[in-house]
Amino acid sequence: xxxxTVPSLDSDDLEAVRQVLISGQLVQGPRVAAFEEVVSKYxxxxxxxxxxxxxxxxxxxxxxxxxxxxDLVIVTAFSYVATANVIxxxxxxxxxxxxxPDTFNMDPDALESAxxxxxxxxxxxxxxxAVIPVHTFGQLAHMPGIMEIAERYxxxxxxxxxxxxxATHQGRPAGTWGIMGCFSFHPRKAITTGEGxxxxxxxxxxxxxxxxxxxHGQNPDSEAPDFVLPGFNYRMTDFQAALGTVQMAxxxxxxxxxxxxxxxxxxxxxxxxxxxxxxxxxxxxxxxAYVVLLPENVAPCRNRIISILREKGxxxxxxxxxxxxxxxxxxxxxxxxxxxPVTDQxxxxxxxxxxxxxxxxxxxxxxxxxxxxxxxxxxxxx
Length: 382
Ligand SMILES: *Cc1c(COP(=O)(O)O)cnc(C)c1O
What we know:
alpha/beta, four-stranded mixed sheet, 13 helices, 14 strands, 13% strand
């Protein structure tokens, strides 16, 4: 089977975890701080706060800004559900914004009109508390445009950079544009700690609040345990952090491999009818996933294409989710097809191809050969 993804784990990764397990100090030891130091240096922010997942990171980011009942948070319609779930879990309500058809990222024009609509509907903009753009599949959202609009409306920006550690736009890394950036170390991302997340920020009070919230509300600066808030246990373990530190040292190597493999796919897919990833000028994605758009006429057969490829020993999957049309959001807010027309299309047509460091060019040729055959097959058979 040519797997969709395989984590890049070597013997030094295993050894790092082993050392922590042998030490007996599995949690709240020195490894988390060391991992945070490496991540903040790499991203280029003053602080990095390690947590148990990117979902936890996003949840704490919203809570640290005081977002709660009856607040509104703007978010992209096309993402993993966690990006919107955390808004609901704060008691707030997501305001979804459609995406660009080429980059799959939040469309700044759609953001502008969503804000205009809220104003027109007489809805008080004062309930609007933040914007969460997502760096979809490891490519930065259109941050200059989004930041300009957000600043005009005085809205803090939380980057969902789950897939984008190491990605840049205009030379500026993911996680440094907004007031906070949230990263994931789930095995589906370029490097992993099993489960794991990090929040990056340059803001000292936010850094403090995030640390309080992740650890039962305990003030990290007080000598004796002092619980100043009702907090969570969203901590990362020491063996995850030790693994993360070793993984971080490999990140540039892994990103280089992913970019090289993506360029090979780009070439092999020429004239296949599938639209290859579109990279705007000055954008350097890290290809958390290599996602193509199938020709419009075969989109209704995407599931068949996925199973045809599986029979050939090739694992593929959809791109990501149409959040407003997933059952919970569709029913709760009465969304329908047509409300987010670009997301409608991209959700149906996106196909994620195998991509991991150990994928060979030979395997990539097989993937593309069978993809071409599958597209031709479903086109002929209707
Ligand atoms: C993976 C992912 C998440 C969730 O990350 P976890 O670490 O699994 O909680 C959130 N947002 C996006 C865009 C993701 O791709």
